[in-house]
Write a structure and sequence with these properties.
Blueprint: H1 8-14, E1 20-21, E2 35-36, E3 44-50, E4 60-69, E5 75-86, E6 103-104, E7 112-120, H2 123-127, E8 131-142, E9 147-157
Parallel strand pairs: 2-9
Antiparallel strand pairs: 1-9, 3-4, 4-7, 5-6, 5-8, 8-9
């Protein structure tokens, strides 16, 4: 089992409120919809962050996406969803590297998995002045059939020369 460095609960609480999404996706009334997990111990959690506080052109950023099963049950059909990755110019970006599979399972109760992505910052990213925004979500199904969902954005400011 992988461990997050430091105390996970403190890391979650230090996140700015605008990066924690506690509402379900817009298709929440559709059959088979996934439920958001805003509280600890209520399903599946996603903790997504860059390993650097700021970035400059030619920096290689490493992003971690931790999927945490706090449902109390085995999770099946666990899928990390890459929602968007953009710079301040709203250009779609692509990760330089990432895992070959974004779906996995089963994941035991209390289990956690880290998926790692990298990106090399460009001068174009800096020319837009602003930040890189990596948005991801996770969805999973418990052994009893309950569907869970959570999302998290990793925001990395671009430093200026």
């Amino acid at each position: 089992m992988l461990q997050l460095p430091g105390n996970l609960d403190n890391q979650i609480e230090r996140q700015p409120p605008e990066t924690r999404h506690e509402s379900p996706p817009s298709h929440a009334t559709a059959p088979g919809v996934f439920l958001a997990c805003p509280l600890h111990g209520t399903g599946v959690r996603l903790v997504h962050y860059a390993h650097k506080a700021t970035a400059a052109p030619h920096d290689t950023l490493t992003y971690s996406a931790w999927v945490i099963n706090d449902s109390g049950e085995v999770l099946t059909d666990v899928t990390l969803v890459l929602r968007s990755f953009t710079n301040a110019g709203l250009e779609e970006l692509s990760y330089a590297t990432g895992p070959s599979a974004l779906s996995f399972g089963p994941m035991p109760a209390g289990g956690e998995t880290e998926l790692v992505f990298t990106y090399v910052v460009t001068e174009n990213d800096q020319s837009h002045a602003g930040e890189l925004i990596s948005a991801m979500a996770v969805q999973a199904v418990t052994a009893s059939g309950t569907r869970h969902w959570d999302e998290h954005d990793a925001i990395t400011p671009i430093s200026f020369p």
